[in-house]
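Re: the request from the purification team.
They wanted to know what the chain is likely to look like in 3D before they choose a buffer screen. I agreed to run a prediction and write the result into the notebook, where they can find it.
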Amino acid sequence: MRGEIVQLTSWKNQAETLFFIEKKQIKEISSLTNVSIRSISKHLNTLPHYAKEVERRKATNQDRREYFRKNKRKNRASKSHLAITGESLRREHEQAVRVLSSEKFY
């Protein structure tokens, strides 16, 4: 019984350390501690600073998504102005011929 209590508190402490200090996700914590996602989530929800950490992570992820979305737009815009060369026309023509030839025989 005593060993179970120590083990029980150790996975909880380990889960808190992994979540708050090492910034791991609950799925990763579950695989590292061999405890179910549900148990870890229930335990973390009981902690007072869990909600703040979740909000901080949401804000960070939202900023990251916004950054990548803006860069994707910039890259897409810069690629649309590429010059058409004879080589690119030849490649597109060969690709179209292959597609049309394969459709003919089906």
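For the purification team: The chain has two domains: 1-47, 51-106.
Please add any questions underneath this entry.
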